[in-house]
């Protein structure tokens, strides 16, 4: 079985997402869902409840320390945001974190993804995006394909990392060269398997390109820039240390004011440090 | 250099670096305003979670000599092999450069 067949085979046999996420997704899609019902489902899982409250009180939501109960979290953040937090927490615990390959560790990749998630949200907020719920999560899962490689084809992935080192190329180029499939495509296959919303599917598949055809897609553009920003600030490890040039079309989709990047640096790093501690350490 | 702050960090006397608008684009507080307690009520009313202030600490940035900057730029060439085409890209480049300089300073 070659790498592509191996990945597809493993994705097909991969288990579904944890029960709490399925129950919440179902409850949220019910037009008659009430905050009480949702709160009851979440509260049944004490570990998740505890973590949700921690994330809800983290600095980037701006409610630091003021949310004490799941009902309050739902009231302040909304159904979709809570669902996304649960999903983010679920996938972080879903994949193994101890399968280091050479010097590349899954926790460093998660740290990169958290950095991209926070940056994506800050960019979305700055360009006046009203529905920010998906921005953090899209950043968190943009590199999920790399986790599949860690999990299922670690031997081949070691060759990819050696190729990166020997050729000073991007990990995406090395994946295509060595495996015949890159993390964008592998991640998209997983998104399909898990039936994630199309916006996430697109963010995973097009985050390197920055655009999807002629669409003025702010979410994809934001993840694209956030990925480059996280690399420039060395937040975590994406698998190679290149800082690629943004797709020029992206600047037309998200018009960022002059001085934007230095102005958000401190907040981004503060939020990053706190969120990494919350999601990966505590 | 403007600095993004959250509502929780609001302090009377801070100077706004950019105007605050509501979600309909209407001006709530103009740029350059020295914040007063009543402005906090406006932010709370309109659900504004973050805003930009002028950062007075920027003058305390560490200065680096030309030789250090040149050597770090050489290292950065391996990671950034492109020329910036607009202000946003120049800022990204400078962020990466500053980050490397800071790391070198702390090591």
Provide structural commentary.
The complex is a heterodimer of chains A (282) and B (107). By secondary structure, chain A is an all-alpha fold. Chain A has a single domain, classed as Hypothetical protein af1432, CATH 1.10.3210. Chain A is built from 16 helices and no strands. In chain A, helix 6 runs parallel beside helix 8. Chain A is globular and about 55 Å long. Chain B is α+β, with helices and mostly antiparallel strands and 107 residues long. Chain B folds into two domains: 2-59, Molybdopterin biosynthesis moea protein, domain 2, CATH 3.90.105.10; 62-106. Chain B is built from three helices and four strands. Chain B has a two-stranded antiparallel sheet. In chain B, helix 2 (66-77) crosses helix 3. The longest helix of chain B is centred in the C-terminal third of the chain and has 20 residues, at 87-106. The mean pLDDT of chain B is 85. The A-B interface holds A 59, 62, 64, 122, 125, 128, 130, 168, 228-229, 231-234, 241-246, 248, 251, 256-267 and B 1-8, 17-18, 23, 49-50, 52, 78-80, 82, 85-89, 91-96, 99, 103.
Question: Which architecture of chain A does the CATH hierarchy give at level 2?
Answer: Orthogonal Bundle
How much strand content do the residues of chain B show?
5-15%
- The Cα radius of gyration of chain B reads 18 Å
Give me the strand/helix succession of chain B. Answer: EEEHEHH
N- to C-terminal distance of chain A: 39 Å
The domain count of chain B comes to 2
Largest interface: A-B, 34 and 31 residues
CATH-assigned homologous superfamily of chain A = Hypothetical protein af1432
Please identify which CATH superfamily of the largest domain in chain B we are dealing with.
Answer: Molybdopterin biosynthesis moea protein, domain 2
Radius of gyration of chain A, CA atoms, in whole angstroms: 18 Å
Q: How far apart are the termini of chain B?
A: 26 Å
| CATH fold category name of the largest domain in chain B | Molybdopterin biosynthesis moea protein, domain 2
Shape of chain B: elongated
Percent range for helical residues of chain A?
Answer: 55-70%
Quaternary structure classification: heterodimer
Largest sheet of chain A, described in full?
A: none
């Amino acid at each position: 079985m070659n790498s592509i067949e191996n990945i597809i085979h493993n994705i097909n046999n991969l288990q579904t997402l944890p029960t709490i996420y399925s129950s919440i997704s179902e409850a949220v899609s019910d037009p008659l869902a009430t905050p009480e019902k949702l709160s009851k489902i979440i509260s049944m899982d004490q570990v998740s409840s505890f973590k949700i409250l921690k994330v809800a009180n983290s600095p980037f939501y701006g409610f630091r320390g003021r949310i004490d109960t799941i009902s309050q979290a739902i009231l302040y953040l909304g159904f979709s945001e809570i669902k996304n937090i649960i999903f983010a927490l679920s996938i972080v615990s879903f994949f193994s974190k101890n399968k280091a390959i050479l010097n590349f560790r899954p926790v460093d990749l998660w740290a990169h993804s958290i950095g991209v998630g926070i940056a994506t949200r800050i960019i979305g907020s700055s360009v006046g995006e009203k529905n920010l719920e998906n921005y953090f999560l899209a950043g968190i899962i943009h590199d999920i394909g790399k986790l599949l490689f860690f999990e299922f084809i670690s031997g081949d992935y070691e060759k990819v990392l050696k190729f990166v080192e020997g050729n000073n190329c991007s990990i995406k180029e090395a994946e295509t060269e060595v495996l015949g499939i890159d993390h964008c495509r592998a991640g998209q296959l997983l998104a399909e398997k898990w039936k994630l919303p199309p916006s996430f599917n697109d963010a995973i598949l097009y985050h390197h390109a920055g655009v999807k055809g002629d669409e003025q897609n702010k979410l994809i553009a934001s993840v694209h820039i956030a990925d480059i920003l996280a690399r420039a600030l060395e937040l975590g490890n994406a698998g190679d240390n290149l800082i690629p040039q943004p797709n020029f079309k992206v600047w037309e989709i998200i018009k960022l004011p002059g001085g934007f990047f230095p102005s958000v640096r401190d907040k981004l790093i503060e939020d990053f440090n706190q969120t990494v501690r919350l999601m990966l350490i505590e | 250099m403007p600095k993004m702050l959250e509502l929780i960090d609001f302090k009377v006397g801070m100077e706004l670096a950019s105007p605050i608008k509501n979600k309909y684009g209407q001006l709530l507080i103009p740029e350059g305003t020295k914040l007063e307690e009543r402005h906090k009520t406006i932010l709370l009313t309109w659900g504004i979670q973050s805003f930009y202030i002028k950062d007075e600490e920027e003058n305390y940035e560490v200065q680096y000599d030309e030789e250090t900057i040149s050597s770090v730029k050489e290292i950065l060439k391996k990671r950034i092999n492109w020329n910036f085409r607009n202000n946003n890209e120049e800022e990204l480049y400078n962020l990466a450069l500053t980050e490397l300089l800071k790391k070198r300073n702390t090591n």
